[in-house]
Design brief:
293 residues; alpha+beta; Phosphoenolpyruvate Carboxykinase, domain 3; 9-stranded mixed beta sheet; 5-stranded mixed β-barrel
């Protein structure tokens, strides 16, 4: 019987999920649709380290006994290690509960759950866990996910960072009316260093499909939104920008072994991009202000 295969590609990292039965039905968000690859045309012969292969293991037996160390826990998900030091991601309240075992090098793993009890139809196998998996996978390369919105224009990327409620989504939604502009995302953007260039990529972790794109472009400028700023636009130093990025970015702070590399990578940003504090007011020609900063 043919396998059911789903391939999700984000920021140059391709995650392939293989299920043993074709009749499995995977439901995913409209935003994810843009990031799915056609497995018929996908080059499976390439053994690139930027691929993670996960096999779906359908079993009524819980693997809970294999877990040995809790590494991180919050209201939504948990990260464990097993006896072989594999990463084990799970969401206890999810039905059916699934455990995602991933080898330390992020090349292979498995998704374990009692899927047959749900007639083989269930939500996207990594629902609410894929962003956590990608955050840990990116950390292998000292890259990270920014809590940011952003757009691409004329082959260059612009990002807007800040706490929830400062206007990141509002800003890119207002800018989306410009025909030559592509919104990369309204809440999460991936920052990577590839071939000596700092690149920003869109992600699927958003509410509106038209507000995200799988595109990746070189980073040009970073803006920190602050409604209480004394001036509409203020230039920031690279050191101050790194501190602000670390305060809001989504990276595995619970894994001390990767933090040094992430901080060092962000330190390399100085001189590679412009950093500014922006007090955005709706109705103004903010795009010209952004491009001319």
């Amino acid at each position: 019987m043919d396998k059911k295969i789903l391939i999700l590609s984000v920021a140059g990292l391709s995650l392939e999920i293989s299920a043993g039965r074709e009749e499995y039905s995977f439901d995913y968000s409209p935003c994810h649709l843009k990031f799915l690859e056609d497995h018929e045309s996908f080059d499976h012969s390439n053994s690139s380290p930027d691929r993670l292969y996960l096999e779906l293991e359908d079993t009524p037996i819980s693997p809970q006994s294999e877990l040995t160390r809790l590494q991180c826990q919050n209201e939504i998900w948990e990260l464990w290690r097993d006896k072989r030091e594999n990463f084990v991601f799970t969401q206890p309240k999810q039905e059916p509960q699934r455990w995602v075992f991933i080898e330390p090098e992020f090349e292979r793993g498995k998704i374990v759950g009692d899927f047959n009890a749900h007639q083989g139809s269930f939500e996207f196998p990594l629902q609410y866990l894929d962003i956590v998996i990608y955050s840990n996978w990116l950390a292998k390369y000292s890259d990270l996910i920014l809590h940011a919105s952003g757009f691409a224009l004329q082959g260059e990327g612009y990002c807007f960072l800040g706490d929830s409620g400062v206007g990141k989504s509002t800003l890119v939604r207002d800018l989306a009316k410009h025909e030559d502009l592509t919104v990369l995302g309204e809440d999460q953007i991936v920052l990577r260093k590839i071939d000596q260039k700092f690149m920003v990529f869109g992600t699927p972790w958003h509410e509106t499909a038209k507000m995200c794109s799988p595109m990746g472009v070189p980073l040009k400028k970073v803006f920190f939104l602050n409604r209480q700023a004394a001036l509409p636009l203020t230039s920031l130093s690279g050191d101050e920008a790194v501190v602000r990025i670390l305060q809001t970015a989504f990276y595995p702070i619970y894994r001390p072994e990767v933090i040094g590399g992430i901080i060092a990578r962000l330190g390399e940003l100085s001189g590679k991009a412009g950093f500014f504090e922006l007090a955005y007011e709706r109705g103004t020609d903010v795009l010209s202000e952004i491009l001319n900063a």
